[in-house]
Amino acid sequence: MQLATRSPRSPQAEREVRRDSALRRARSCYDHLAGVAGVTLFEELIRRGWIALEPGASAADHPPCVLTESGRAALTRLGVAVDDALGAKRAVAYACLDWTERRPHLAGALGAAVLAALERDGVAVRERGRALRLTSLLADWLDASVRGQTRSTR
Fold first, then answer.
1. What is residue 149's three-state secondary structure?
2. Residue 122 above 90 pLDDT?
3. Triad 50, 53, 58: Cα angle to 5°
4. Is residue 150 scored above 80 in pLDDT?
5. CA-CA distance, 72 to 144, in Å (whole number)?
């Protein structure tokens, strides 16, 4: 799936890519996961059928996404505050074009809820500034919902 047009990177983004910096690998974009990790997570959520582009959405900037029933169940089992995200006064989920990767990551209330759960579970740890460090593979965290391991919100 190719959502984003490959527009050129800014000089700052190009520098982060050349360095393969921590900021490129995983960072917060406002309140959601971005960088290589964020793009990987977005693609995995779509591959698993947990989110999908809203029907009729194009590859334009910030296309809306929908949370599927299987996604709602799986993310709830992981302790993601799905109901809070669905009831938020902001967009629930949309594709945000990543600064360094020029591919989308998950934004909106659901993206924020997923990052909060990753931090709560110790999978994403805040480093300097916006940089995050992942302590385990995102796929392993997502697989916990399939294995029936329920995480409770704190």
1. coil
2. yes
3. 165
4. no
5. 14
Residue 61: band (very low, low, confident or very high) from pLDDT cuts 50, 70, 90: low
Q: Which two tokens stand for residue 99?
A: 């600064």
The letter for the amino acid at 20 is: D
CA atoms within 13 A on the CB side of 49: 3
Rounded Cα distance, 117 and 101, in Å: 23
Looking at residue 151, its pLDDT comes to 58
* H/E run at residue 69: helix 69-77
Sign of CA dihedral 33, 38, 44, 46: positive
Q: What is the mean pLDDT of residues 84-110?
A: 95
Q: What is the DSSP string of 26-67?
A: SEEETTEEEHHHHHHHHHHHHHTTSEEEPTT--SSSS-BEEE
Do residues 151 and 143 lie in contact, with contact meaning Cβ atoms separated by under 8 Å?
no
Q: What is the pTM of this model?
A: 0.88
